[in-house]
Every structure is written in structure tokens, then in C-alpha cells.
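I hope you will forgive my troubling you with a question about protein structure. I should value your view on which stretches of the chain appear to form regular backbone elements. Here, with my thanks, is the record as I have it:
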Amino acid sequence: MPMPRPSFVDAVAADRRYRPLQSGTGLRLMHCQCRAARGERAVDEEHQQFSITLVDRGRFTYRTRTGAAELGPGWLMLGNAGDGYACSHEDSDGAGDDCTVLSMSASMLDGTLSALGAARQTGAGKASERFTHACLPPLPRVACLFRGLDDGGEEGFALEEATLAIVALVRRALGDGEAPEPLPRQDERARAAAFCIETRSAEALTLDEVAQTAGLSSFHLLRVFRQAIGVTPHQYLLRQRLMHALHLLRDTRRPVTDVAYDSGWADLSNFNRAFRREFGCSPRALRTSARRRSSDTVLDAGANPDSDADVGLRPDLTPTTGPALRDAAGTPAATSLSRRGTRS
């Protein structure tokens, strides 16, 4: 969930607990545990800084000026400094939720965007660009970067390097049109299909089964799902499986073959190809790097995507035109990250 106000008044009202993980100049990384019960009244709050928040556990509905959507594990919540927001728990399991929050000052966001060739100063202390959408569906690379920071301690410059990579990946996804449509256009049937995929991603799931859950034909689901969720059902399924595989690789010692099968892949070679395409390295190399907890792998590793020497999480930082963020006055950003096409 987003960062608390300095007075912590809203944090108390919303029954949240924050645990600092790392901090730097204009940067804070915190773990947030929300204890809100199912159906508990939402609290009106305000983002004090720009933030990118990874949902680790639980479900809640996030509403802000840029839109609204139901978020679950792996989703990214985007916050603009000064924007009001509210989180409600109509469809939660009653056990609250856990999130990892990366907050950035306006000057830090400007500096990060400038490094990506995208920022334009519009005034002292004022960020030149803002997130144009409220959230993004799961991005396994971003989740991996968050997890690396969670595990790696405060040594070196890992926080700054990971922030640059995370902002780049989020910006690219926004530019590629992966943000879902705002509620109420976020179709309830598509949300039901997404929940089916999330809870059954390790099974040999068919599109017909997902469509039946949503009460749609298979081809109608394809159209509705992409508009409402931001990615196709196939992409969503693969990302859920990759997120599960990432968890097993980092938190268990299960053999890679077992990780593949337990995550839903029926063929090991397909798993290895999908994993390398997403992370730029083999599953074994990512596990080895995670155990080393080496801060210099966040951006510099994986320059050669065919090498298993280290984790290939370096994003393409080449600037080009795109609508990922807008300036404070609503003007489209002059530049964005280059697009690679929709990834699975």
C-alpha cells in the first residue's frame, strides 16, 4: 500500500503497519501490512510521494484520480504525489494484504526519468511527469527486482539501480498499453476470469474452462479480458506461472524441474524458454544470483542474454516517443522507452 503521511494519522485509521526496508536520497522502500477486514469502510488518503507498490498478498480495490481497479498478488499500484486515493476490501478474504512500497520524491522521479531521456523540468520541486494509470497487471521482472531488494540488505547502490530499472519497466508497460481500463468498465466477467487464472495457474487450464467461469464464449473472453485487464489471458497465465516459479526458486531448494512442473508447465524446455525470455537468464542462474545477493546484478547483469553468468534484468533504456507518463498539466511526455512488442 502507499506510503503513510508523516503524521501517520491515515495509517492508523486504515490499520496498517509499516516496516522500513531500505532508504536513500529521495527513496524509501517499505513493507506494508494492512489489516482491513472484508467490507471495511475505505479511508480517504493522499499520496505524499510518487510510488510504485507491489502487491505481495491479498486483494483490494484501489481508486484514485487516474482510475480504479481490483488488485491481487503481483499487481502494481501506481501513485502520484498529491493525488487522493482510497482502498476498499469488498472481495478480500478478510485476512488483509501485504505490499512492498517504493516511494520517490518529485526530484528523484525527475532524475530517474531524465536518465531515461524522458523528463522535462516544469518547476522547482515539481515532478515533470505523472503516472497516467492507476495500476498495471503483474510484471515478473519488476517483482524480481522488488524481491532482490527485499533480500539484499542496504549494501552498495542496489536501491538506486533497482529504482531505475523498475521505473523503466513500468514506463515501457504503460507505453505498450498494458494498463487496464478504469472501473466501472473493468468488466466483472474479466475479473472473474483473471481470478480463475490466478488460483489455477499451476493446472492444465484450458481457455474454455476460464471462459465458462466468466460466463463467456472463449473468443468473447479474449476481447473482453484484454480490454479490462491490460494483457491477454495467455499472457496473464504465463505471468502467473512465472511469478510462482520465481517464488519457488528464491524461497525453496526444489529442483528446477520440479519448479517448472509445480508452476504449471508440462514441458521443461517451454519453461526454460519462457523464463529466459522474461528474465534474460536461466532459472538456475537466477537462483544462484539470488543466493549471492549481489547488488551489482540489478542493472549490469545479463548484458549477454545467452549467458548464464548472472541475472539478466537490465531493461532497454533507449528513449523513444510514447504516452507512458504525462506532465503535471496533462501534456503527453516527449519521450518514452522503446517498445519491444507485447511480451508473454
Remarks:
- Residues 1-13, 120-128, 294-344 have pLDDT under 50 and may be disordered.
